[in-house]
Design brief:
CATH topology of the largest domain: Aspartate Aminotransferase, domain 2
Shape: globular
Largest sheet: 7 strands, mixed
Helix content: 25-40%
Structural class: alpha/beta
Number of domains: 2
Strand order of the largest sheet: 2-10-9-8-5-3-4
CATH architecture of the largest domain: 3-Layer(aba) Sandwich
Number of helices: 11
CATH superfamily of the largest domain: Type I PLP-dependent aspartate aminotransferase-like (Major domain)
Strand content: 15-25%
Order of helices and strands: EHHEHEHEEEEHEEEHHHHEEHEEH
CATH class of the largest domain: Alpha Beta
């Protein structure tokens, strides 16, 4: 019997993905031209269903990239002339910050120790900052930025573009897009798909900034600039030959989730998170890696392990057919990370809790 992967990415495939891939192969989807009517239909279905699932306003654009990592670069290239501001409290938020410096921008950061979050009142963004970059759910540490803090930052800095990395919180994240300018994610975590596709959502303020940079003859990218992406997106196409299979499957998985109901998905996510959080509270072998309950992620549940190396505990859990993630980077030896995505059933989480409760 195949193990169930509760790793925070790549993670377990959504339970309908295998059937959708089979159907895509029957339709010869992997061989069609990305200029064909068939591909245009796949593209439109994916965009429409992402929009419906995440409640994205019609005024916001949805385009596809190779990964969310690519979007870090494209956002900075297209929307920043001089300066970005980053909230850094883990490996991925730090990398977002580093990308800005690598692209020649003045990258400013507010950095917190691993396991700590942010509040709007402690953030002081310089007036000449063009984009505030927020990793809403830091996959490496399990720290989340509550949407209320993001809304407060919008009110505090109305002229600054706000970009949200939601790689490990979509589709659980319930956010008002009108209070942000851009959000992006990749599909191998919460969407339960094979890696290789990024989804980039942005508004007209981002488009306007990209246009301004172009008029100033500042490079905004090559095949994947906002201008080139939108030029093709109006016809449900991409500038280059894309991950057609990924776009096809994304449209289908979003449709499955819509049928299931996003509110149901969020309720189940809360229930599963509560099981693990109670375990971290009560079991003598564990403690929370994120001390502040308000900043604990519901989708990446990180615990400190006591009494044995994390690798030994992970190996014991695997004997029961469940694979959980190790800590990230320097926390690899002492932490576990448990992904809590829509494809992970309540029954698997209940079994996991039983297995962990039996350990001493």
């Amino acid at each position: 019997m195949k193990p169930v992967f509760l790793t925070p990415g790549p993670s377990e495939l959504y339970f309908t993905v295998e059937d959708h891939i089979r159907q895509a192969l029957k339709e010869n989807a992997c061989a069609i031209s990305h200029r064909s009517k068939a591909f245009e239909a796949y593209y439109k279905t994916a965009v429409d269903n992402v929009r419906a699932l995440l409640n994205v306003p019609e005024s916001y654009h949805i385009v596809f990239t190779a990964s969310a990592t690519e979007v870090w670069e494209r956002l900075i290239q297209n929307c920043v002339e001089n300066q970005t501001y980053h909230l850094v409290n883990g490996s991925f938020s730090k990398r977002f910050y580093e990308f800005s410096g690598m692209l020649g921008k003045n990258a400013i950061k507010l950095e917190k120790p691993l396991g700590e979050g942010f509040t709007a009142d402690e953030i002081d963004v310089p007036t000449d900052t063009e984009m505030l970059c927020i990793t809403q759910n830091e996959t490496s540490t399990g720290v989340s930025v509550p949407v209320e803090e993001i809304y407060a930052l919008r009110k505090k800095y109305p002229e600054c573009l706000i970009a949200i990395d939601a790689v490990s919180s979509v589709p659980y994240l319930d956010i008002d897009f009108n209070k942000i300018d851009s959000l992006f994610f990749s599909v191998q975590k919460g969407m339960g798909m094979p890696a290789g596709l990024g989804v980039w959502i942005f508004n007209e303020r981002c488009v306007s900034k990209a246009t301004t940079l172009t008029e100033k003859q500042i490079p905004t990218g090559t095949y994947h600039s906002i201008e080139s992406l939108l030029e093709k997106a109006v016809n449900n196409q991409t500038p280059e030959t894309p991950n057609v299979l990924g776009i096809y499957v994304l449209g289908k998985v979003c449709e499955d989730m819509l049928r299931r109901g996003v509110d149901v998905i969020r309720q189940e996510t809360n229930y599963k998170a509560a099981l693990i959080n109670y375990l971290y509270n009560e079991h003598p072998m564990f403690s929370h890696a994120v001390a502040n309950e308000t900043h604990r992620s519901k989708t990446v549940l990180v615990g400190e392990v006591k009494g044995m190396p994390a690798s030994e505990l992970i190996a014991k859990v695997k004997e029961h057919g469940i694979v959980i993630g190790s800590g990230y980077g320097k926390n690899k030896a002492t932490q576990i990370r448990i992904a809590n995505f829509p494809t992970h059933s309540k029954e698997v989480f209940e079994k996991l809790v039983d297995v962990l409760n039996e350990m001493k």
